[in-house]
């Protein structure tokens, strides 16, 4: 690796680019479920995109 | 989209220097120094013994950082007192800054003061396109659980069952309202839906006909207390590819203390037998065993592990939502114990996975790399816009928790949505519109939390339920820790 590009103090574990998903405005095919206490709720981050 | 955070022209006209190098080199320079608020809302630094992480909120990327980076970043958000990094040499500080700048260039780290990205959702976030329904097929229940928000089945009204024709009309409306959207979700809920299986069978049959005729994909889920989960019903769920949510609160004493029969008897033994029998018949079928924890079992990690030991490999546990005066409600002073349970759960899950006996915990299954798009994350669950609940009489509500609450009837299954302004109100309750969410590092993962909880606790959907927020943030940190461990194959990442 080019030393200039070497990182010594940080290691990327998961690279994500959420910002890039802003362009589409959403296809709306994603799961729609509930965040409340009685049904198994969704923390939004744990849904996969269905696209 | 006038309600959303405005993009300031100066942000666009005056491109920033990457800045961090400059900042951390001296940490005294004012020019280019990111604000503390910017650092705290866009860079989430968190750690567990032996590992330190940095979540970039805006990109969703997760980084492991060492002690030097931890301290330098801490200095930026002033979490670390000035002078506390004197032990770190200038060379190391410069290296950290270089690393952070590189991440910014790569797009896996946002500059702290970057404004939130504006999703291209069109001009309005008003009423959405309904694509999911919760069918209250039974406003009745064969159990009397202490913390039940549904008034042990009746949702504050009389006990009743949904006629099959109401459920079929609801599906007709769903297919009509969903327009061009292909994936639809329908939940059978109550009360206890198994009390009305005849209607469930008819509704499923009708739904499959609509599915075939339309080319859409209809996913059914049924939530049950398992008391009446016979092999015959289990076979029906399997044959029709219906996902199941099985309510069990864990250890026998914990479960039986709250989840009782109509006559006050214990239920654990029967429920556990039924649930295990059912799960064993669907090795590939989707299910979750889900429990509710209360202030009486803040050590709920032992309930999760108990269920895993019993053989369930898909588990979810959630905090009870009760009025503050309830003996079950989670209070501020309970939070350290709640946090400790999540910490222990992470440890146990890592250990068990390494031993080849891992299990899924719903809230820890973050999909960081391929999660929902930004537009979806603004609005969360979709209640009132994309998701509605249907009562046995056919009334439409924003979600199951709003059923019976004054002022929230949106329409009915026969005439459709008569009050779209309710959906618009939910559309306005997005994370950029709530001050407390705009400054929160968890905003794109929790999407503002549960509207019903917010309304119950604060009387408005515009202000999230704060204890729920604090539990959610802890749960997300736990999930990120586990994700890092998985990604690196290390015991702790």
Taking pLDDT < 50 over at least 5 consecutive residues as the criterion, the unreliable ranges of chain B are: 1-19, 23-31
Provide the residue-averaged pLDDT of chain A. 77
**Low-confidence spans of chain A: pLDDT under 50, at least 5 residues?**
none
Tell me the β content of chain A. 5-15%
Largest sheet of chain A: none
Number of E-state strands of chain A: 1
What does the overall shape of chain B look like?
A: globular
Number of helices of chain B: 18
Secondary structure: elements and pairs:
The complex is a heterodimer of chains A (51) and B (493).
Chain A (H helix, E strand, L loop, with lengths): L9 E5 L37
Chain B lengths: L8 H5 L6 H7 L9 H7 E6 L2 E6 L5 E4 L1 H10 L13 H17 L25 E5 L1 E2 L20 E2 L2 H14 L5 E7 L7 H18 L2 E8 L6 H9 L3 E5 L4 H7 L9 H13 L6 E7 L7 H10 L3 E6 L15 H20 L5 E2 L12 H6 L7 E4 L4 E3 L13 E2 L3 E2 L2 H9 L6 H4 L4 H4 L4 H8 L7 H23 L5
Parallel strand pairs in B: 4-7, 4-13, 7-8, 8-9, 9-10, 10-11, 11-12
Antiparallel strand pairs in B: 1-2, 2-3, 5-6, 13-14, 14-15, 15-16
């Amino acid at each position: 690796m080019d030393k200039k590009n070497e990182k010594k103090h940080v290691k990327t574990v998961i690279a994500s680019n959420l910002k890039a998903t802003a362009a589409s405005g959403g296809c709306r095919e994603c799961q729609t479920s509930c965040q409340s206490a009685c049904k198994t709720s969704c923390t939004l981050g744990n849904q996969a995109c269905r696209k | 989209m006038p309600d959303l955070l405005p993009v300031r022209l100066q942000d666009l006209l005056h491109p920033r220097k990457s800045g961090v190098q400059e900042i951390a080199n001296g940490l005294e320079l004012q020019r280019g120094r990111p604000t503390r608020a910017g650092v705290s809302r866009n860079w989430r630094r968190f750690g567990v013994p032996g590992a330190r992480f940095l979540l970039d909120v805006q990109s969703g990327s997760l980084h492991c950082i060492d002690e030097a980076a931890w301290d330098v970043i801490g200095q930026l958000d002033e979490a670390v007192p000035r002078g506390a990094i004197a032990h770190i040499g200038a060379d190391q500080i410069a290296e950290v800054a270089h690393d952070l700048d590189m991440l910014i260039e790569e797009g896996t780290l946002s500059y702290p003061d970057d404004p939130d990205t504006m999703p291209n959702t069109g001009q309005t976030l008003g009423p959405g396109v309904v694509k999911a329904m919760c069918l209250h097929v039974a406003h009745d229940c064969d159990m009397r659980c202490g913390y039940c928000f549904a008034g042990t089945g009746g949702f504050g009204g009389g006990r009743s069952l949904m006629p099959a024709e109401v459920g079929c009309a609801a599906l007709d409306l769903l297919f009509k309202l969903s327009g061009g959207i292909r994936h639809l979700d329908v939940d059978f809920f109550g009360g206890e839906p198994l009390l009305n299986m005849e209607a469930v069978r008819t509704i499923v049959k009708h739904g499959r006909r609509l599915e075939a005729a339309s080319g859409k994909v209809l996913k059914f889920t049924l939530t049950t207390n398992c008391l009446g989960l016979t092999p015959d019903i289990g076979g029906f769920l399997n044959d029709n590819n219906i996902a199941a949510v099985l309510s069990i609160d864990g250890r026998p004493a914990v479960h039986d203390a709250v989840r009782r029969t109509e006559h006050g008897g214990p239920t654990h033994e029967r429920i556990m037998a039924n649930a295990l029998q059912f799960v064993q018949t669907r090795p590939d079928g989707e299910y979750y065993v889900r429990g509710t924890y209360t202030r009486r079992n803040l050590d709920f990690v032992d309930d999760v592990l108990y269920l895993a030991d019993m053989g369930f490999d898909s588990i979810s546990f959630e905090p009870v939502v009760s009025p503050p005066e309830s003996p079950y409600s989670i209070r501020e002073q309970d939070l350290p114990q709640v946090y400790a349970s999540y910490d222990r759960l992470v440890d146990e899950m890592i250990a068990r996975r390494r031993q080849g006996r891992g299990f899924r915990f719903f809230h820890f299954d973050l999909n960081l790399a391929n999660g929902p798009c930004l537009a979806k994350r603004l609005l969360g669950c979709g209640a009132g816009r994309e998701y509605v609940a249907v009562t046995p009489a056919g009334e439409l509500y924003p979600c199951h928790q709003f059923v019976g609450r004054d002022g929230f009837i949106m329409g009915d299954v026969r005439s459709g949505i008569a009050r779209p302004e309710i959906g618009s109100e939910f559309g306005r309750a997005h994370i950029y519109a709530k001050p407390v969410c705009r400054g929160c590092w968890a905003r794109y993962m929790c999407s503002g939390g549960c509207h019903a909880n917010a309304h119950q606790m604060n009387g408005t959907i515009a202000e999230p339920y704060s204890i729920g927020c604090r539990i959610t943030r802890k749960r997300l940190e736990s999930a990120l820790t586990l994700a890092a461990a998985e990604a690196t194959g290390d015991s702790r990442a």
